[in-house]
């Protein structure tokens, strides 16, 4: 899910979740590894189709409109907004995970979730937090609980009026957070994902 709150706009241009670690960028991985890919090129009756072919349609709640994006269109969210997908079964048996998106925020107070999956106490979270000072990847793993990697970033850099690529990866041993292709934080975590 993606949320925006307050008076700022968060725009997304392409977001994807992968079953295996992927290099950031527009080139797709083989379809068996793709969980979902939303290009945000269309907004039809409040929904965005899954371009990855897995059928995980995203439903928009709150203020949303299409804008020019990095690759085609982008979805602009205003006020309290979210993009929701019913997909808990799609996230079972993940040996590894990559979440990536293009962001163009205009305001970063509090936190802005890029992706969140939560079933009770089992969670995957990828967000800009602490008023834009942290890019965070949080994962629930078997036997070790929930851990969040909060990588320090410069909020002013994200608010420069340019698109920024963000990605969070986990390969079964290490969590890494990327901003514009550069690793900005890593944390060792040798455990199996337990996303619920």
Task: Explain how this protein is built.
The protein is mostly beta strands. It is 2% helix and 53% strand. It is built from one helix and 14 strands, in the order βββββββββββαβββ. The protein has one helix spanning 155-158, and strands at 2-4, 9-18, 34-38, 47-48, 58-68, 73-84, 97-105, 112-119, 122-129, 134-141, 145-152, 164-170, 174-179, 182-188. The strands form two sheets. Strands 1, 2, 3, 4, 5, 6, 7, 12, 13 and 14 form a ten-stranded antiparallel β-sheet that branches. A hairpin with a 2-residue loop joins strand 13 (174-179) and strand 14 (182-188). The two termini are 15 Å apart. Residues 1-11 and 16-31 have low confidence and may be disordered.
Secondary structure: elements and pairs:
Blueprint: E1 2-4, E2 9-18, E3 34-38, E4 47-48, E5 58-68, E6 73-84, E7 97-105, E8 112-119, E9 122-129, E10 134-141, E11 145-152, H1 155-158, E12 164-170, E13 174-179, E14 182-188
Antiparallel strand pairs: 1-6, 2-3, 2-6, 2-7, 4-5, 5-6, 7-12, 8-9, 9-10, 10-11, 12-13, 13-14
